[in-house]
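Case 180 in the screening queue. Each case pairs one protein sequence with one candidate compound; here the compound is fe (iii) ion. For every case the pipeline is the same: read the inputs, emit a complex structure as tokens, and attach any notable structural observations.

Predict complex for case 180.
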Amino acid sequence: MNPDVASASSPGTDKWVPYRHPQPKESPPELVIPNAIPTDERIWVPVEQNVWFRPLLMCTSRGYWMNLLRVRKSGILSRHRHPLPVHGFVLKGEWRYLEHDWVATEGAYVYEAPGETHTLVVDSHVEEMITLFQVNGAMIYVDPDGNSTGYDDVFTRIGKCREHYRINGLGEEYIDQFIR
Ligand code: FE
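Case 180 output:
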């Protein structure tokens, strides 16, 4: 055997050779967002007072969304229940849930289990917090007794983005690049 062929196919020598075949045609295109924490303020979509989100991946085919949540001091993300798990990574600042005794600080990873109902607050000593969240399924807004008062899912969130981007001039189609 040609020694070059032998060495090229032996383990360890082809690590830098790219995969030679096309990706599956059913696989959606990858998504890379260079400035995930945007400097263009228009990209942040207001949710309620002192609370905004920045869409990253709106996964309509699997029913979840990836977003940055930004809350400035004394902001509250209204009480809600999660039927499916949530994963979070704190990029800046800190926050807590009224229902727990821990504080999520910069650099922390947070897992919230299905069935969890909570209220996210940013206290007055924190100028700003930014957290990456994967939210699966839905957020079901509830009163203190758990009676539902509304919901968000990936589709309502896309709707809020469209409305916000339409009004602020980015254009309602701006959200389309984040949908898979
Ligand atoms: Fe939550």
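Case 180 observations:
- The radius of gyration is 21 Å.
- The domain at 47-178 is CATH 2.60.120.10 (Jelly Rolls).
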